[in-house]
Every structure is written in C-alpha cells, then in structure tokens.
Design a protein that fits this description.
alpha/beta; 8-stranded mixed sheet; 10 helices; 26% strand
Length: 380
C-alpha cells in the first residue's frame, strides 16, 4: 500500500511537470517558428457591398483592414462595422468603394491589417531594389522622396513580410523622406531560402545593417529606423551596432518588443502558465541542442535583447507608439522601457487597438503623433 501511495504521489508530481514541459516546447516552437494561416469563413453580402466574416476580437475591431482570398489570390479592403451578430457569431463590414468590388469571395479568407496590398497604392514613385547581404541579394522597395538626404528604413516583425509596412510608409510619406522597406533572412521571399526560424532580431539586424549601408551608399545623410513589434528589437540592435550609427538620428517603434523575457512571460501568463513555464521556454531557447532542433543558427541571448532592465541603454531619440489594448506586447512593457530610458524615449498612447494595429484604429492619430515628434526631434 505504501509503495502504491508513493507511486501515486510521484505521478501526481510528474504529471504537471510533464504538462509544463510540453507547453514549453510548444511555446518555444511558436515563438520562433512560422505558424499556419488563421483562416476565417467569409462571404459577400448586399450585392458585394459588405463582407460577412466570422466574429472574433480582431474582425470586430474598429478601423480599416484587409482580407486575402486564397481562391482568387486577391486582397479586399474593408472598413466600417455595420452589424455584429453575437448569436450566429459573424460580423458584417463595408467593402471600400475606392476598390473595385470583388464578384466572389470565400469561403475562407485570411484577415490582415494591411490595407494597401501593393507598393503603387502607397506612392506613385517606387522601385524594387536588391540589397547585398551576407547571404545574397535581399529584395526591398525604395520609395523616393523629395528629401534624398533623410531616409527611413521600415522594419517589419516576425512571420509577416515587408508589405505589412506599407502603413508605416504611408504615415511618413508626406514628410518627404526617402523610404526603404527591406526583407531579411527569415522572409519567405528571400532566395536562396535562409533561416528556418526567427532569431527574435538577434541575427536579422545584420540584414537591416545591409539596408543601412545601401542607404548611405545612395546618398543618405540621416537615417530613421522605424520598427514594428520584433522590428523594434531589430531597430534597437541596429542603432547600437551599426557601422553607420552616427547617421542614425531617430528611432520610431510601434508595439515594440523591448524585452523578450517580459514579452514571453506575459504570453505564458495569458495562457494560464506560471512564470516557471516561461523560464523553461527561455531555457530551451538558450540550449544549443534544442536551438538546433528548432532550426536556429545560434542560441538566443536574452541579455542582448533586453532594454527594460538595463537603464539608459538607448542613446538615440526614440518614439514609441503603443496602445493600452495590446495583449501580445503589453503596454506596461513600453512604460517600463520609457522609465529605463527617460532621457531618450518618448512614449505616446494611441487609441485602443490590437498588436501593431494602431494605424488601423486611427490613421490620423498615428500620423499626427509621428509627424509632431519628427518635427520636434529630427527636423529642428
């Protein structure tokens, strides 16, 4: 009987440990790996004037968004919420009249915060260029501005692609700067294929450094780095390590990851997992054998990716635009980031929005705050 009791006690102890370990492995894979598309059911209504789509927190959010129909490989921009049916779990939104209405759509679509879809929709003058990197040529979009001496390099986050930064290019466009939107090693469009997994900015920054070198070689005297989500990590690393850091005059961050430790811990907490689970995830990402299993070229150094717990690490004037409603990278992390860097970081809250959807919720508020800060900080 005693043996049985001991066995049951051992099982009672091991079961949660095994569950926690399993979660840690899954979460580690999710953090650095590309996940599947999150398709939603959708159909046209009201003679093609409305889109009906599955109801969730994202599809009912106020603002302008887009949907991609994999059947037709076509994007459609949607706007105002016209109807929410909580019982049947759908929402209807107006389709933008500025676009030609689709004649068919669905039965499933991919929801996206991108609303421009192609570079010509953002600005008339652009070209596709190829930036030399350590692995080959990386494609980038170059938007020529009236000001050829000041360049903005727009840096997207993990498991998106450079087109997601069209909103950022649009926000900067009337300032007259030249914009460069590079790709980097974990992007699918890079050829030959490079990283299987995201390195959380730890290696990707070197590709952005190549974009900085390209800008300097083509006349950039002053450079602004604008990074969203993990792109914020990349921007901060580039500003510190770049051979051209004397040209970097400002950083703009949107919903930025300024502490991967705190971001991962917050994600675990949302999933109902205690801090020990988050610590286990980070231990796995720092273990050489497990890192190789995940397709990482090197282990993750979380000290290098920490700007919250290191006072005054940021030397360049930096603007953070962030929403209180962001759950993926909580607002409180940006508050702590600003508190750690009071002399260089300006934090401005924007209207309620999901992660990196501040522009979608209010393009005018986003652009006005950006322009005001640039005018005070960069143009004076």
């Amino acid at each position: 009987m005693l043996t049985t009791r001991r066995g049951l006690a051992c099982l009672a102890f091991l079961a949660p440990v095994a569950a926690l370990s399993g979660f840690a492995v899954l979460m580690a894979r999710k953090i650095v790996g590309r996940g599947p598309k999150d398709y939603r059911r959708a159909e046209l209504k009201d003679d093609g004037r409305r889109l009906r789509i599955d109801l969730d927190d994202y599809t009912k959010a106020q603002g302008d968004f887009g949907v991609f129909d994999p059947a037709t490989e076509r994007y459609t921009r949607v706007g105002e919420v016209m109807l929410i049916d909580e019982d049947q779990k759908f929402v209807e939104r107006l389709i933008h009249t500025q676009d030609s209405r689709p004649t068919s759509l669905g039965p499933v679509v991919d929801w996206t915060p991108d609303v421009f879809f192609e570079p010509s929709a953002v600005a008339g003058r652009f070209e596709e260029v190829h930036i030399p990197t350590e692995y080959g040529a990386a494609p980038a979009w170059l938007f020529e501005g009236k000001n050829a001496g000041t360049w903005v390099i727009h840096i997207h986050g993990s498991w998106t692609d450079r087109s997601i930064m069209f909103r950022d290019v649009h926000a900067f466009s009337h300032l007259g700067f030249t914009s460069l939107v590079p790709s980097f090693r974990s992007d699918l469009e890079v050829s030959p294929p490079q990283a299987e997994s995201s390195h959380l900015g730890q290696t990707e920054w070197r590709d952005v450094e190549s974009a900085v070198a390209y800008a300097v070689a083509h006349g950039a005297k002053r450079i602004i780095l604008s990074g969203w989500s993990m792109g914020g990590t990349i921007a901060l690393l580039t500003a510190e390590r770049s051979a051209y850091r004397d040209r970097i005059v400002g950083i703009v961050l949107v919903g930025p990851v300024t502490s991967w430790r705190k971001t991962i811990t917050a994600g675990a907490a949302r999933a109902g997992v205690p801090p020990v689970g988050a610590n286990l995830v980070m231990s796995l990402l720092q273990a050489p054998l497990f890192a190789r299993m995940l397709g990482l070229e090197e282990t993750i150094n979380f000290d290098d990716l920490e700007w919250v717990d290191v006072p005054n690490r940021v030397a360049v004037p930096t603007l953070v635009l962030h929403s209180h409603a962001d759950q993926e990278v909580p607002w409180e992390i940006s508050v702590a980031f600003q508190r750690a860097n009071p002399g260089t970081v300006t934090l401005i809250p924007l209207p309620e929005a999901h992660h990196t959807q501040e522009w979608n919720a209010s393009p005018s508020a986003f652009t006005n705050e950006l322009t005001s800060w640039i005018s005070r900080t960069i143009l004076t």
